[in-house]
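= Protein in question =
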Amino acid sequence: MTTPKIVLSIAGSDPSGGAGIQADLKTFTALGVYGAAALAGLTVQNTQGVRAARPVDPDFVAAQIHAVFDDLPVAATKLGMLSNAEVASAVADVLEARRDDAGLIVLDPVMIATSGDALLTDDAVEVVRTRLVPLADVVTPNVPEAAVLLGEAPVSDDNGLIRQARALVAAGARAVLAKGGHLTGAEMTDVYAHGDTFALLTGPRIDTRNTHGTGCTLSSAIAAVAARRGDTRATGVRLESVEEARDYLMRALNSGSTWRLSRTPDQGHGPVDHLVGRAEVGL
């Protein structure tokens, strides 16, 4: 009998398919794990931007998570858009009560969409900072999100990114992948900080408008790869898993870089090619 590794996404929905739950499930499939999902929010959005957003009832969000944990042995849980403080608190309540059932937790502190639209209310930020960050095995903020979590201005270079990644670890995160996509330059650098150590993950910056959902995709890839590789709460999310997940995102960005899915492809931001990884895992 074969049992695939199971990864749960708790996040919002993107009807255009490039971000949120839809991107997470595609990524899970591409990387060879079984995906489950609990919807925490609904959006009206496409590659051009977010038109509206609504939270799901907090009790209903919690009930979805309980239903998955009651039935499925989850190896990793990815947290994405949690809408507001009530939803974020409900998720924190379940995870605190059932921490062993969640496996590894990857927290993507989704606050702002690629289009610049806000996806998290101000009162929810404190819940993420004080209750969810300490529960997570790795937190994956981009430059603006790291600044919000620390109550600082956004950084402008790699040295600042290193400092903020280490500051988030000092503030209670087990590990941090601080993403440098908002910085400039031919090279793109992310910082993985864990304990007293850090690693710089660099690669060429891909010239493309198609970056919708990259944060969702990377965090779900980390959860999937860590689960498939056998990372546990005892080991934490190992650097090798982060590197493999990051490589998957780079290949997805490159493969989808010339896509013109939208009716107006020269506006907005198209998605990446989530299924680029299927051949590598024998699917």
